[in-house]
Amino acid sequence: MIKLHQFHPSGNCYKVRLLLHQLGIPLETVEMEMGPNGTRSLEFKAKNPIAKVPTVELEPGVFLAESNAILWYFAEGTPFIPSDKLERARMLQWMFFEQYSHEPYIAVARAWIAFFGIPPGKERELEERIQKGYAALDVMEGELAKRPFFAGERYSLADITLYAYTHVAEEGRFDLSRYPAIRAWFERVQSQPRHLRITDAVPATAR
């Protein structure tokens, strides 16, 4: 069985739970502490030298890290990756956007505000991250005003990656009421078969 080392509230970990649940792939979750006794321990670094979650154990002693790489591994050959060359490239475009222009701002603001506290001296940086997070949301709103999903007409990995932190962005002090296209997209994502909420535990039937 796939073993997912995770911090449950993390959007990056949620991406993996959501996809595997939608694919019907059973998994076991291992909750990790953030810090020297958890993700930065020598034991965990032996599994993933980057010392971050999510990390999946595909089989005994075989590990894979980085959320979007994990998604690609499991989704290859499924409808979650478009067969059309251009749509597939657009999917990757938005997955790269999520990691470079979205997650560093929206996810970090949420983490500081909702879970770990604002690091001393980082108050101004928080406001800068929130401004850049709004810039990412503006880009998403413009795209979703033109098409139902990020890679075209169908739900794909691009939607999973961007949904994960966007739908909980209000926990990072982002006002989503000004984004009607994003909120309509939330409903489309949530209507997909076998949708799993970020707060849900992995269903017993999937373990």
Give the topology, please:
Blueprint: E1 2-6, H1 11-23, E2 27-31, H2 42-47, E3 55-59, E4 62-65, H3 67-75, H4 85-116, H5 123-144, H6 157-166, H7 180-190
Parallel strand pairs: 1-2
Antiparallel strand pairs: 1-3, 3-4
Helix pairs in contact: 1-3, 1-6, 4-5, 4-6, 5-7
GO molecular function: transferase activity
InterPro entries: Glutathione-S-Trfase_C-like (IPR010987), Glutathione-S-Trfase_C_sf (IPR036282), Glutathione_S-Trfase (IPR040079), Glutathione_S-Trfase_N (IPR004045), GST_C (IPR004046), Thioredoxin-like_sf (IPR036249)
Protein name: Glutathione S-transferase
Descriptive account of the structure:
The structure is a single chain. This protein has about 210 residues and is α+β, with helices and mostly antiparallel strands. It folds into two domains: about 5-75, Glutaredoxin; about 85-190, Glutathione S-transferase Yfyf (Class Pi), Chain A, domain 2, CATH 1.20.1050.10. The chain has seven helices and four strands; from the N terminus they run βαβαββααααα. It has helices at about 10-25, 40-45, 65-75, 85-115, 125-145, 155-165, 180-190; strands spanning about 1-5, 25-30, 55-60, 60-65. The chain has a four-stranded mixed beta sheet, covered by helices on one side. Strand 3 and strand 4 (about 60-65) form a beta hairpin. Helix 1 (about 10-25) runs parallel beside helix 3, helix 1 crosses helix 6 and helix 4 (about 85-115) packs antiparallel against helix 5. The chain starts with a strand and ends in a 17-residue tail after the last helix. It holds the Pfam family GST_C.
